[in-house]
Structures are given as structure tokens and as C-alpha cells.
Specification:
Blueprint lengths: L8 E5 L3 H12 L3 E6 L11 E4 L5 H10 L2 E4 L6 H8 L3 E2 L3 H8 L1 H10 L7 E4 L2 H11 L3 E5 L9 E4 L5 H8 L4 E5 L5 E9 L5 E3 L3 E6 L2 E7 L6 H17 L4 E10 L6 E8 L9 H4 L4 H9 L12 E8 L15 E4 L9 E9 L2 H15 L1
Parallel strand pairs: 1-2, 1-4, 2-3, 4-5
Antiparallel strand pairs: 6-9, 7-8, 7-9, 10-11, 10-12, 10-14, 12-13, 13-16, 14-15, 16-18, 17-18
Helix pairs in contact: 1-10, 4-5
Length: 373
């Protein structure tokens, strides 16, 4: 590492588990992190200095900008005006434009269309009349999604038929939305990619992801049975997005795989302008973790290699910690607890399992599931 990159101070907006893991990766690179979060008990307090203030607090933002060489963020619901204010004082990555695109599903879908990236058929919905018209056009069942502030299944309502349109509109909160046609997909895949300030791009292998209740439960990487054509399609889409946005940092793109074999292809669901849950396996399962590469990008360093070192499965721990001793009963499990209190639907930790072959990984995952429950 060159002298100009040593002892950098990196600011992070948001103090959750992603900031915690970013700060740990930053320490290994010789960086010090300062986190801005309104919660004095946020996860990242264990590994970074914490400024306790609302994200929009002008004095706190000025303090952060004055003390940092660069500022990044751990989630995409940071108010855009916050990154705009910071960008006038300090380098911000990813840039505010990337945040604006990711914060609004319509902006995101418009970008996909401009870049020639396929998506589910959708219509914009700003009223109950729009919703009824959209259902007439694309049919039901369909998924009604709020344009902003959606994550982990929140901000989404399944519209089973047109008779339930008004109930669905009310449940969503009568907010601007899009209606996605129901997609019959073979599986969910995602690609995590990184782009440096110099324009270097590196890709992690596609991961296969299993969701229940809108929350990610398990990711396996590298995804099995992925053809060269599918991998190339995912990389091409990610590259076009990274370059279009002049992006610096880690980006995840979530896809649905439609069909199988030679007929398989991908349609894009959404992007995440940050390190991503489906890339947590990279801490133990890749030559350089997504967290290290995000920090390397922010610090102006060359990216590290992203090759998988074997086969990995990442399992989220959701709601409550397993019974005492359960996690320790599988010594091969790499356990990451975030320091969060238990709450239904809340990600309080994750576990990564690694093996040299898929057969051994499946056996390990089965054992882990049986022991932990």
C-alpha cells in the first residue's frame, strides 16, 4: 500500500452489520472508520468510532466530512440530499446518482431498459385506477411494489386477482408503485461485482439464493449448473451498470433465471449499491471479501482477486439466536453474530460453511440444518 493510501479515514453512513464488517475490513487495510448512525447501540460501534445523530443532521454531516478522506454508505435508503451535501465537501462512493437510481424502482427499471437489460413486465401505479388498468394489461397474480423504501420483503404486496386490487393498494399505503407481472422462474441468482476508482472491474461467481417471506435464507456460491452464457449475461449487465453510473465500490445485481439448459436466460430484478447479503460468503469463501474490495475501492486501491476458494453456503440467522451450543456443535461453521437483539424477521447474524466439493458442502449444510434447526 502506498504512503498516500495509508492511515485513511473512511466515513460510513449507517451503523448496521454491513458497516461493522466494512470497518473490520478497513482495519486490515490500515484505515480507520467513523460511522454516522442515530442509534447509540448500532452494530458498528464495536469496530468504528460512532457519531450518534440523525442522517440529516447538518452539524454531524459537516463533522463527518471534515474528518474523513472518503465517505461511503451501507444501505440505499440514505436520503439522497445527505450524499449530495457530503459530495460537495468530501469524496462519496458510490456516487449520489447511483443512490438515486437504486432508491426508486422506476428509476432502476428505466436504467435497465436504457441499457438493454431485461426485466419482468411491469407498469407504473400511482392510483387505484392505475392499478386496475395495470392488472387488465398484465394479468394476475402480480406483485405490487412501492417505488421507494422497500427491503427484505417490505413494501411489496401480492395481488392475487383484480377483486383484491383496492385492498392491496390500501395495504401498500397508497404510495407510488410499480406492478410486476408474476415471473415463473427456475431460481434466483445474484452477481456481486466491484469497480475501483481507476475503472478496474472484478466479479464474484454467481450465487444461488433462497428466500422465504421476502427474506434471504441461504446463498450458495458458486451457483451450480451455471452455463458460460448465463455467467456472461450477468457480467455484461453488471458491467454496463457500473460503467453507466461511473460507479466506485461493490454492487449487487439480483436476477431471476428463466428456463433451464440452453434456453436459460436472466431477467434483472433490482440492484443494491453496496455490499450485499448474498456476498457474505466471500469473507471465508473468496480470495478477497466483498467488504475488503469495497474498502479498497473507496481508498483508491487496486481490487483484490475475487476467485472462490471452494464451495460455500451462507445461512442467515433470523429472529432468534439458536439454542445455546447449537452453533458450536458444527465446528466447521464460521459464525458471525452482529450484536443485535432478537426480533421477528431481523437478521441477527450469519454462518458460512465451506467445503472443497458440492457433495461435501451439501452434507455439511444438511448437518448444520439438522443440528441448529
Amino acid at each position: 500500500m502506498s504512503a498516500q493510501h495509508a492511515n485513511q479515514v473512511v466515513g460510513i453512513i449507517g451503523g448496521g452489520q454491513l458497516a461493522q464488517m466494512l470497518a473490520r475490513a478497513g482495519k486490515d487495510l490500515g484505515a480507520r472508520c467513523i460511522v454516522l448512525d442515530p442509534n447509540p447501540d448500532s452494530c458498528a460501534r464495536s469496530d468504528a468510532e460512532l457519531i450518534v445523530a440523525p442522517y440529516t443532521d447538518a452539524d454531524a454531516l459537516a463533522d463527518l466530512a471534515a474528518r474523513c478522506d472518503v465517505v461511503t454508505y451501507e444501505f440505499e435508503n440514505v436520503p439522497a440530499r445527505v450524499t449530495d451535501a457530503l459530495a460537495g465537501r468530501v469524496a462519496v462512493c458510490p456516487n449520489p446518482q447511483a443512490l438515486r437510481v437504486a432508491q426508486d424502482r422506476l428509476n432502476e427499471r428505466t436504467m435497465f431498459a436504457d441499457l438493454g437489460i431485461g426485466t419482468p413486465v411491469y407498469r407504473t401505479v400511482d392510483s387505484i385506477a392505475d392499478l386496475i388498468d395495470a392488472l387488465d394489461q398484465i394479468g394476475a397474480p402480480a406483485l405490487l411494489k412501492a417505488r421507494t423504501l422497500g427491503y427484505d420483503g417490505k413494501g411489496q404486496v401480492l395481488v392475487s386477482d383484480i377483486d383484491h386490487a383496492e385492498d392491496s393498494w390500501n395495504t401498500l399505503g397508497k404510495v407510488p408503485a410499480i406492478l410486476d407481472a408474476f415471473v415463473s422462474f427456475a431460481r434466483e441468482l445474484s452477481i456481486v461485482a466491484a469497480r475501483s476508482a481507476a475503472g478496474q472491474i472484478e466479479f464474484y461467481p454467481l450465487s444461488e439464493n433462497v428466500h422465504r417471506g421476502g427474506i434471504l435464507r441461504v446463498s450458495k456460491a458458486p451457483a451450480r449448473g451455471v452455463s458460460g452464457q448465463l455467467e456472461a449475461q450477468a457480467r455484461e449487465a453488471a458491467t454496463s451498470i457500473l460503467e453507466h453510473l461511473n460507479y466506485v465500490g461493490v454492487l449487487a445485481v439480483e436476477f431471476f433465471q428463466i428456463g433451464a439448459g440452453d434456453d436459460a436466460h436472466l431477467v434483472a430484478n433490482e440492484i443494491a449499491p453496496r455490499v450485499h447479503n448474498t456476498g457474505h460468503w466471500t469473507i471465508e469463501g473468496a480470495q478477497t471479501s466483498q467488504f475488503a474490495n469495497h474498502m479498497r475501492s473507496a481508498m483508491g486501491l487496486e481490487l483484490g482477486p475475487t476467485t472462490a476458494t471452494g464451495h460455500s453456503a451462507m445461512v442467515n440467522i433470523i429472529g432468534d439466536e439458536p439454542r445455546p451450543g447449537a452453533l458450536q456443535a458444527v465446528p466447521q461453521a464460521h459464525v458471525h453474530m452482529y450484536g443485535k437483539s432478537s426480533r421477528p424477521g431481523r437478521k441477527i447474524g450469519h454462518v458460512t460453511l465451506n467445503a472443497p466439493t458440492t457433495t461435501e458442502l451439501d452434507a455439511l449444510l444438511e448437518r448444520f440444518t439438522r443440528v441448529v434447526g
